[in-house]
Amino acid sequence: MNAVQTYRYLAPSALGGGALALQTSGGPTPNPRFFRGFLTTPQAAAVGLLAVAEVARTRYHRPVDPASLDPVVTGSRDRLRFESFSGCCGVYARLDALPEGLDGDVVEHGTTNVDVNTPLREALSRVGGLDPLHMSVGPDDLTVSTMNGEVVEKKVPLPVRWLRGFAEVQVLAARFEPRAELSAAEAATFLRRLPKGGSRSVLWVVPAGRSLRLTSRPVPGAACLAGPSRLVALHPMLRFAKTLRVYGPTVRAGSAPLPSVWELDTGALRLSLTLSPEPYRGFSGEGAALTALAGDDVVDDAELVSALLSWDPTVDVDRLAGEAGIDADRVRGALAQLGTAGRVGYDVSEAAYFHRVMPYDAGRAERDNPRLVGARALLDAGAVQADGASATIRSGDQIYRVRLLPDGALTCTCPWWAKHRGQRGPCRHALAARMMVTNRVEERV
pTM score, two decimals? Predict the structure, then answer.
């Protein structure tokens, strides 16, 4: 199923006339150009764009025919972002063209997704070290121009799984911290000695001198590497990179598989791959955003925060909290709600949120999250009875017990929780219990 975002294009994407031009949609003026100019490192930029497109056309779990090739492009004041998900939704790729990488101005803020078809792929693959790469990004077309001509691409529907993936990735990534940094030479050595054909294995990496050491078990300070072969999209970019950085959540002995970010930085560009916790798991089903979406005020907060979002490269949570008159936790919940429409992303390199210009649909969170719908139905039916650190939930003929753990997590006696052990977000019973406790606290306040 696809989500149709409405964008109007002046022309299809094109490559020609010695320049590369990309376009996004949105903005206050008719057919604005969000960016028009050159990329200062054309060959590296072309390789990075091809990597993002390659992820979009790949299914890493149970490979089949190529999937979609329609990266999302966002112009945001001083940079351009190109994003995609793999066909299995288990890998999220992003290329950030930073201020040092652009010779031009981002004069409007806008977002669109464009089809990277065969002519554009061929044109990008022919960009040499001294060839210019010109890009024009606007609401109605993506135009790419190089020495070999011009290519114009048309807008295509955005897959619904991508919207759900955007919502989950930004919540997960906001919990990440830097775990390791390698020089380009050490990164190349490490990536090339990863086990071949390891698309289904889950490994862990720990810093070891100037490089990384692989281990089969989680240990404190490690980062998870689920499906090592999924990092193959980084290889062509290695020759331009200065550093490889690894980000991830806190790992403890006995930790379950976790997501991670692997980022190559050239100084002008950053190419990152975010890997799901296990090769067969797509981000669209992780459930990380559910708790943030459960508050009673989250929809109203999202409407308020949406009106306050600027098109700065990063989103200042504390500034938004002050302007909106709500606390930072409620702002993060609002950002999660906006994330269900793809409006918000998270940049681990800058430890900050950023936003995309996409239509906000307040009802999408409910439609895309049946556990959230089920939790609200349980509350409306009076099926939840709280008792201190526990709760009893009646669901049909079944009775389940939810218990609050010392670390704030919830457990449940239902079969769904027994299968996933909290690794895919809360079950609807635990979510309903948390919502009841939260509502009671707010009522007392």
Answer: 0.85
- For the domain 1-287, what is the CATH code? 3.70.10.10
Q: How far is the C-alpha of 284 from the C-alpha of 369, rounded, in Å?
A: 10
pLDDT band at 91 (very low <50, low <70, confident <90, very high): very high
Q: What does the block give as tokens for 155? A: 């807008």
At 160 the three-state DSSP class reads helix
DSSP-assigned states of every residue in 219-256? -TT-EEEESGGGGGGGGGGGGG-SEEEEEE----TTPP
- Which residues have C-beta within 8 Å of that of residue 148, sequence separation ≥ 6? 15, 16, 123, 126
- Report d(CA 257, CA 306) in Å as an integer: 34
Distance, in Å, from the CA atom of 427 to the CA atom of 70, rounded to the nearest integer, reads: 33
Chain position carrying tokens 């708790």: 291
Assigned CATH for 290-365: 1.10.10.10
**Which residue type sits at 313?**
P
Same fold, 1-287 and 290-365: no
Query: Could you state, in order of their start, the residue ranges of all structural domains in the chain?
Result: 1-287, 290-365, 369-444
345-363 pLDDT, tens digit per residue, is: 999 999 999 988 877 776 7
The residues pairing with 226 across neighbouring beta strands, listed in sequence order, are: 202
Radius of gyration of the chain (CA): 22
Q: Where does the pLDDT of residue 423 fall: very low under 50, low under 70, confident under 90, or very high at 90 and above?
A: confident
- At 116, give phi and psi (nearest 5°): -90, 95
Give the burial string for 237-262 (b: 16+ CB within 10 Å, else e). bbebbebbbbbbbebeeebebbbbbb
Among 6, 8, 38, smallest CA distance to 21 is for 38
Give CA–CA dist 309/331, Å, rounded: 11
Q: Write the Ramachandran bin of 287: left for phi over 0, alpha for psi from -120 to 50, otherwise beta.
A: left
With CA atoms as reference, report the closest residue to 263 among 134, 357, 351. Answer: 351
Count of all residues that appear for the chain in the document: 445
**Closest of 403, 407, 398, 410 to residue 388, by C-alpha:** 403
Q: Is 282 helix (H, G, I), strand (E, B) or coil?
A: coil
Taking the C-alpha atoms of residue 144 and residue 20, their distance in angstroms, rounded to an integer, is 3
Q: Which of 119, 121, 58, 123 is nearest to 84 (CA)?
A: 58
CA 278 to CA 30: how far, in whole Å? 44
The pLDDT tens digits of the residues spanning 123-159 come to 999 999 889 999 988 777 778 999 988 988 777 777 7
Contact 92, 81 (CB under 8 A): no
DSSP lists the bridge partners of residue 152 as 13, 143
Q: Are 191 and 230 in contact (CB under 8 A)?
A: no
